[in-house]
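Incident review: delayed structure delivery

Summary: a single-chain prediction request sat in the queue longer than the usual turnaround. Root cause was a stuck worker, restarted by the on-call engineer. No data loss occurred. The affected request and its eventual output are reproduced below so the record is complete for anyone auditing the incident later.

Affected input:
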Amino acid sequence: MGQKTNPIGLRLGIVREWNANWYEERNFAAKLDEDLMIRNYLRNRLKKAGISRVVIERTPKRVVLAIHTSRPGVVIGKSGKEIAQLEEELRKVTNKDVKILISEIKRPELDAQLVAENIAAQLEGRVSFRRAMKAAITSAMRMGAEGVRVMCAGRLGGAEMSRTEQYKDGRIPLHTLRADIDYAVTTAQTVYGSIGVKVWICKGDVIGNKFALAVR
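Output delivered after worker restart:
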């Protein structure tokens, strides 16, 4: 039996921060459910915006969403029209005051979620899985990643029997807690079935950051 742990969950409080910064004793389940609904709504509404993650902060009457995206112009729209409309839609859905902040991802080649979604989109477009995986690894290493690992599983190339294939380059030290490893998993819905895509990207070691006490 493999004892596998999510690389991001393992590093929370050490080199990674939470994607939701709030705490509630009484209505925790309802607010967690609302968080999931907000994230799903944004991902479906802004499919072409290249959203990596959504960080949610709450006060009793306000929800602040920090959207990390590689295409901020798509989210903001002409003179901020799109973002204002999005805030209004979320206000109706949640019955709370919603504020949206945009954080641009300067190097999308080093973001595991965006790399995984790009590979999945290529697989859905019938690009060779080997070509898509190797191209993603090459571009990430060129942009300064210390190591990249990409894994695809399913009916690769339309084969009758499903299998798993992976390619890697550089170092991906999963047991080193100070190593900043970005991880993402997504699914490509191809004509011959679902193909799972996993991506690990090592961006180097984080030394002397604000979470250093947690390591001791």
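Verification: The first helix runs from residue 7 to 10.
Action items: add queue-age alerting; document worker restart procedure.
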